[in-house]
């Protein structure tokens, strides 16, 4: 018998000031005892302290660990810090959420995702990207029990993070094309429902591109809900396929070759322009939509030298080889990589 299990978040709370309800939400979820709050250095100040106070006001004992990187060591540090805690809260960007998610999964306890930026679709996903010497690995984890997304906090985060989140969402277009290609060529498992949710999320968000503005809680709400929806598509698929294809391989390769990579979502957005060109699709629509959102569409705007873009393009097919995409098994030659980046205006 071929059983399939889909695990999804139980409660999703969004809105301005909802972080003040953290303690009450945890009580409602029947959580008791000690809570471990994982934050980054910035996110402790902008959100972590508010979440901690709300938990303490409701009588929870709270401990805090601040991490710097989404590394194996950080995961071990959080696992060691869990002790008798009954739940882990990850209050921060993608790296904090990934570390808190994986450490809680490995310790067999629940996790609540408290995003401080709408910059990535790991907010609700059952995956954790952990960096090591050779790049990053995407590991299976439990999806969060709950999500508390305070749109007031998210709207005050640097706008670059929100624009990056839109890049992670627009990636769904090429990710789905890659998945369909692999399904047709290699009979890879494919989920119509996960694919439909992922595409609908990308289409609805891009239709609202004009409304995505700096400092607005409504814009933050729109993007964070789309990112949650993308994460749910990943849960339904049981793989990151609906939200990660050749454009993500390019971003992962750039993380390895560029001395100072840009944000995950920014790199994925740029990758989507180029991979859509390779798919023969409307790459100009992708570029123009990213421009409307004020997300970077060139290497220069991302602060990355052209040679790293070309190198990442030639290496992208070597990342997660089992995931077949438009890059094929042989990838791009240096000449075709350069031509691709020049034609699409990326370099
Ligand atoms: N698991 C999954 O399915 C997915 C995982 N990812 C992963 O997520 C990561 C990318 O996430 P991203 O959020 O872009 O990067 P980071 O988590 O590295 O955050 C970027 C920076 O933004 C800061 N920050 C976050 N929120 C605020 C705020 N409200 N105000 C001020 N500063 C803030 C962080 O501060 P601080 O220093 O405090 O942390 C950090 O310095 C990558 O590691 C990527 O691989 C991406 C997509 C999916
Ligand atoms: O970033 C992701 C989806 O947006 C996760 O993708 P990976 O599985 O490639 O790490
Ligand atoms: Zn991504």
From TrEMBL:
Domain of life: Archaea
GO biological process entries: glycerophospholipid metabolic process; phospholipid biosynthetic process
Enzyme Commission no: 1.1.1.261
GO terms for MF: glycerol-1-phosphate dehydrogenase (NAD+) activity; glycerol-1-phosphate dehydrogenase (NADP+) activity; metal ion binding
Cellular-component GO terms for this entry: cytoplasm
Compartments, as annotated in UniProt: Cytoplasm
InterPro entries in UniProt: G1P_dehydrogenase_arc (IPR023002), G1PDH (IPR032837), Glycerol_DH (IPR016205)
Positions that bind Zn(2+): 168, 248, 264
Residues bound to NAD(+): 94-98, 116-119, 125
Catalytic activity: sn-glycerol 1-phosphate + NAD(+) = dihydroxyacetone phosphate + NADH + H(+); sn-glycerol 1-phosphate + NADP(+) = dihydroxyacetone phosphate + NADPH + H(+)
Binding site residues for glycerol: 121, 168, 248, 264
Pathway entry: Membrane lipid metabolism; glycerophospholipid metabolism
Reported cofactor(s): Zn(2+)
Record note on cofactor: Binds 1 zinc ion per subunit.
UniProt KW Cytoplasm keyword: yes
Cross-referenced Pfam families: Fe-ADH_2 (PF13685)
Protein role: Catalyzes the NAD(P)H-dependent reduction of dihydroxyacetonephosphate (DHAP or glycerone phosphate) to glycerol 1-phosphate (G1P). The G1P thus generated is used as the glycerophosphate backbone of phospholipids in the cellular membranes of Archaea.
Family that this chain belongs to: Belongs to the glycerol-1-phosphate dehydrogenase family.
NCBIfam families attached to this UniProt entry: PRK00843.1
Subunit description: Homooctamer.
UniProt name for this protein: Glycerol-1-phosphate dehydrogenase [NAD(P)+]
Gene for this chain: egsA
